[in-house]
C-alpha cells in the first residue's frame, strides 16, 4: 500500500524545509505554507520523504499509510 | 409580531424579534417546541405530556432504535447518530457532552430549544449517556447568565425528582464562532481554550481528557429523547426516506422578522421563506451558500435537493436578503467577522481569510467620483485585480486548515461571487442595489480582541 | 614513551577536546535557535541549517567521547569510569567533574531523543529537547571549575565569546517569542496590515522575501508591528535552492 504525505497545519509554521527537500511533491503557497501534491509518494522519493519528515523543525510532516476515507465525526 | 418580553427568551440583544414556531405543517409537527408561544415547558408538564424518561436499563439498547430511525446530527454535519453512539459505546469511561453552543450568530434554534424545551434535551442527554455507558455528562452552552440559570434550575429539579440518573455539569463556552466545533468543545471541556484540534485521533477515541467522547447537538438529543419514547417508525413519519424526521430552522425573513420554526425535512423552501421581497437567499448559515431567489424557489429543505445546487442544510439557517440590500456588502461584513474568528493556528487560514475579507470589502465599495474605492487605491488598482486575488486566495485556503472554517468561508465567498456577479458589475458603474446602509445579517457587536476571549 | 609523557599527552588531549567540545556545543545551540527562528545562513538552503545543527552535535559527541575517555584513563588524576555518567562520584574534584557528568548525561539524552525524532510524540520531543538550554550552562560551569584553562589567555576569549554567543541567541529567542502575536490575534493583525494605505503589495506576516515556486521574489516589507510566534521578523533572504545537492 502506498504512503502519503500529510501536514499538520496547526504545528506547521512555514519553515519551508520540506519544499526544499522534495520540490517534486511539495510546493509553497505565497505565505510560505506547504501545498502537498495529491497521490501516493513514488517509491524513488520515499527515502527523501522520510528525511523531510524527520528534518521538519516543527515535526509537522508525516508519512502515513493510505486509508480508505470514512465519514467524519461531525 | 409578538413583542419580546424580558422573561420569555434569553437574548444577546433585546432588539432581536421573538422566535415562534410556525404552525400549519404536517400533523406530527411541531415535535420539539410547543405549538404556540415561547414559554418554557416545566418539568411536571413535560413528564405529563411525554411520559417518563424511557431508560432502557443498560448501555447499547437504544442504539438499534436510533439506527432504524435514521437520526442524523442536527449541528450541521448530519452525521448518523447511531454510528457515533456505537463508536463511543465501546470505549473506557466515555464522556457525553451536549453541544448547545451554536456559535453561528444567525442561528437561534439551540438557545430557543434550551430555553423552551430544556427537559427534552436533558432527557436525550441521559438516554445517550446510558446508551454509551457514561456517567460523566456535560452540557456546553454559550455564556448567557439567564439561560445558564434557567438550565441550572431545570437540572436541580430533575435531580430532586430523580429523573436524572447522572448529574450534568454545565460548561460555559466563549462567544466564538468556532466554540461549537466539536474539537473546540472538547478542548474547553478539558480546561483549555476554544481552539480546534486535528481530526485524528477522533473524539470517539480520545476526546475530553483523553477519554472517548460523544458530542451531540442539543437538538439531536431532543430528537433522540422522542425516538426513545415513540420509536423509529414515528420519527420517520415526517421527512423523506433518505433524510427522515424534522429539524429546527432559524428563518430570517426579508421583512426583518426572525423565527425559529420546526419543519419536516424535504419541506419546500418557499414554505419557510417569503421570497417575494427577496433579492437572494442564504442557505446554511455563514458557512453556507448564497442562491438566487429563482434557484431557492425550486429547492427543498434536504441535502438531496440542496447539495446539487451547491448548498446544504447545515444547522437550518435560512435568510432571505431583502431586495434593497447589497449582497456584496453583507457578505463582506460576514467574511470580515469570519476572518476575525479564525483561531490563528493554521497559516493558510489566518493569512487567507483576512485578505479575502479585504478583497471582498474592496469589491463591495462603489466606484464613482470621490468614492471610498479611489481612496483605497494602493492595494488594488481595479476591481478585476481584487477579484483575481480573491479567487486565488479562496482556492488556497480550502482544505488546508485543521477544521472546516476556511472551507466554509470559501464556500460562502464563491457563492457570493456567483450570485452577486451582476452586482459587482453595477458597482464598477458607480451603482449599487443597496438603498439601505443598515446591515441585515446579524453579527455580534464586539469582535474578539485578544487571546483571553478564546477561553 | 615513559609514564609521565604519556600522562601529560592524555591530560592535554582531554583539556583540548574539552575546549573543542564547548565551542562545538556553543555552535550547536546557536544553530538550534536559528533553526527555530527560521533563520538562514547566507547562500545555503534552510535544510543546511538543520543539517549543520545535527552534524555539529554529532561531532561534539565524538569530541566529548575523547575528552571523557582520555580524562578517565589518564593516570595523572583519578576520576574513575563511573564518574563519566554518574555525577559527583569522582575522587578528583567531585563537584566540577560531576557537573561534567550531568552535562554529558543531558547531551546523551538529547542525542537519543534526536535519533528517535519522528518516532515519539511531538510535544514530548520538544520538552526533552529543551534540556539543551540546561546542558550548555552546566557544561560551561564544568569547564570553568575543573581547570583554570578557560580563565586566562586565549581560552578566556574563547570562553567569553561562547558565553556571549549562547546568551545572545537565547535572549533573542526569548524576546522574539515574547513579541510574537498570540494565535487568536493573528488574523486581526493580518487584517490590520491590509488596511494600511500605500504599502508594498501583499505584504504578509510570515516572510516578505521568500521566493516560492509560484511567483517571483517580492520587495521587502516596510515595517510591521507584529511578529507571529515561530516566524521571525522579515529579513533579507536568499532564494531557496530547489533541486540543489541534498
Report on this model:
The complex is a heterotrimer of chains A (74), B (455) and C (246). Chain A has 74 residues and is of the alpha+beta class. Chain A has two helices and four strands, in the order E-H-E-E-H-E. Helices cover 20% and strands 22% of the residues of chain A. In chain A, the strands form two sheets. Chain A has a two-stranded antiparallel sheet. In chain B, helix 2 (61-69) runs antiparallel to helix 3, helix 13 (327-340) packs antiparallel against helix 17 and helix 14 runs parallel beside helix 17. In chain B, strand 2 (136-142), helix 6 (145-160) and strand 3 (168-173) form a beta-alpha-beta unit. In chain B, the strands form two sheets. Chain B has a five-stranded mixed β-sheet. A four-stranded parallel β-sheet of chain B has the order 3-2-1-4, sandwiched between helices. Chain B is built from 18 helices and nine strands. By secondary structure, chain B is α/β, with parallel strands linked by helices. In chain C, helix 1 packs antiparallel against helix 2 and helix 1 runs antiparallel to helix 5 (132-146). Chain C is 60% helix and 0% strand. Chain C has helices spanning 3-36, 46-73, 94-115, 122-129, 132-146, 153-179, 183-195. The longest helix of chain C has 34 residues, at 3-36. Chain C has seven helices and no strands.
Mean pLDDT of chain A: 88
Give the overall shape of chain B, derived from the CA principal axes: globular
Mean pLDDT of chain B: 89
**Rg of chain B computed from alpha carbons, rounded to a whole number of angstroms:** 22 Å
For the termini of chain A, the CA-CA separation is: 28 Å
Which structural category do the helix and sheet elements of chain A fall into? alpha+beta
How would you characterize the largest beta sheet of chain B?
A: 5 strands, mixed
In what order do the strands lie side by side in the largest sheet of chain A? 1-4
Element string of chain B (H = helix, E = strand): HHHEHHEHEHEHHEEHEEHHEHHHHHH
Number of helices of chain B: 18
Distance between the termini of chain B: 37 Å
Q: In what range is the share of β-strand residues of chain B?
A: 5-15%
What about the largest sheet of chain A? 2 strands, antiparallel
Fraction of residues of chain A in helices? Answer: 10-25%
State the helicity of chain B in percent bands: 25-40%
β-strand number of chain B = 9
| Extended strand count of chain A | 4
Q: What is the succession of H and E elements of chain A?
A: EHEEHE
User: Most extensive interface: pair and counts?
Assistant: A-C, 25 and 31 residues
Strands ordered across the widest β-sheet of chain B: 6-5-9-7-8
Low-confidence stretches of chain B: 1-27
